[in-house]
Amino acid sequence: GRRKNGEVIDCSLSVNLITLNGIPHILGVIKDISSYKKAVKQVEDSRLLMETIVNSTSDMIWSVDLEKHGLMNYNESFRRYLLDHTGVDIKQGMTTNELFSSLEHTQKINDILDKALAEGTLVTEFQPYFNPDMVLELTLNVLRRDGKPFGISVFGKNVTEQKMLRKELDNYNEHIIEAIENDRLRISHEIH
Predict the structure, then answer these.
(1) Widest CA span of the chain, in angstroms?
(2) Which of 28, 66, 73, 99 has the fewest CB atoms in 10 Å of its CB?
(3) Whole-number Cα distances in Å, 163 to 3, 108, 177
């Protein structure tokens, strides 16, 4: 449509055939929907920004429903992780049974999801069956809509390197403390 001042705007047109006093008429209604289209574009831009942010991290992010633990959403890192390590090309709706071939692994994941639902928030470490040397830190939160839980979000971070560095640092600290204690004893014996 076009306003009187010449500005072009988005409109919707509704046309109906009506009868008045036995005479058929065509009733047309033109509605300015430019503000609606602007709001839709803002929502879509916001959704795309959030999707870009979520997919820019190396951390794995996914969410499951409460009924079947079926995938509701996931980021590219989670998709790549499962494809690379299990060969599973994931899709929305897939359950933990479909995502992981190991029954024991599936049960562990389901137990963690159930525990998160009971506690509301849960942070735990997890070792995948396909790489027992890997350590993932999982942070799980209950998703709520209108105060009612409808799903669980999971943030997974590979902390394997951090755990190894922490262990090395602890070992190094033990050796330093032992060396200081040995020096203290040696000096004490030399003095007496």
Answers:
(1) 125
(2) 28
(3) 66, 21, 21
| 60 contacts 78 by C-beta, under 8 angstroms | yes
Tell me the per-residue pLDDT of 49-95, one tens digit each, with 9 for 90 and over. Answer: 988 888 889 999 999 999 999 999 999 999 999 999 888 999 999 99
Is there a contact between 141 and 151 (Cβ–Cβ < 8 Å)? no
Element containing residue 152 per DSSP (H, E): strand 148-158
Residue 106, CA distances (Å) to 50, 54, 161 in order: 29, 25, 25
Six-digit token string for 48: 């795309």
Contacts of residues 174-178 at CB distance under 8 Å and 24 or more positions apart, as own/partner, are none
Inter-residue contact 63 to 154 (CB < 8 Å): yes
Structure tokens at 33: 């929907």
Contact between residue 136 and residue 154 where contact means Cβ atoms under 8 Å apart:
no
Give the whole-angstrom CA distance, residue 127 versus residue 160: 10
Using CA atoms, how far apart are residues 90 and 122, in angstroms rounded to an integer? 24
What letter does residue 101 receive in the DSSP assignment? S
